[in-house]
Specification:
This protein is mainly alpha-helical. It is 65% helix and 8% strand. It has one domain: Winged helix-like DNA-binding domain superfamily/Winged helix DNA-binding domain (Arc Repressor Mutant, subunit A, Orthogonal Bundle).
């Protein structure tokens, strides 16, 4: 019997913290590999995609670098460097906040709107095909997984 299947069916009180940690790390690597392999065709990394998506959701109002860093849990220099790189690729634009000239707002350039939708649709399908259908993960199981992730994030803040 596969070790992961053995732990999957084990009472959670009997799974050690290191076994749980191994499972979390392994799952992260598996998902990240699928995401990274897909995004290579767009010449962006997973973190760049997360930033593009979050900025896209903010719409024309844009989002500040500080908010981006807080949401992603990254440092201000990392966020700034990544935004500068995406700006050099023409995907993102920075503009000065109307009420505070020290604050920069970030938006997705209009000519990349279709790319954002293409990536979202394609990556969703790739994850569905590669992970969820192959591993027989139901929509309900995936919904539970996402809910738990957001609960963990909320508890950590």
């Amino acid at each position: 019997m596969n070790k992961s299947n053995e732990f999957m069916n084990k009472d959670m009180g009997l799974i050690t913290t290191y076994q749980s940690g191994i499972a979390q790390s392994s799952a992260h690597r598996v998902i990240n590999r699928v995401v990274s392999d897909y995004l290579i065709r767009y010449d962006i990394t997973a973190m760049q995609w997360f930033i593009i998506g979050y900025v896209h959701d903010a719409g024309e109002a844009g989002v500040t670098l500080t908010e981006l860093g807080n949401v992603l849990g990254t440092s201000f220099p990392y966020t700034t460097n990544t935004i500068n790189l995406l700006e050099s690729k023409g995907i993102i634009s920075k503009k000065v906040h109307a009420e505070d000239s020290r604050t920069k707002l970030v938006t997705v350039n209009a000519e990349h709107e279709d790319m954002v939708h293409d990536i979202e649709d394609g990556l969703r399908e790739e994850l569905r095909k590669t992970l969820y259908n192959t591993d027989h993960i139901s929509r309900e199981e995936l919904q539970t997984y996402i809910k738990v992730l957001y609960k963990i994030i909320a508890a950590g803040h």
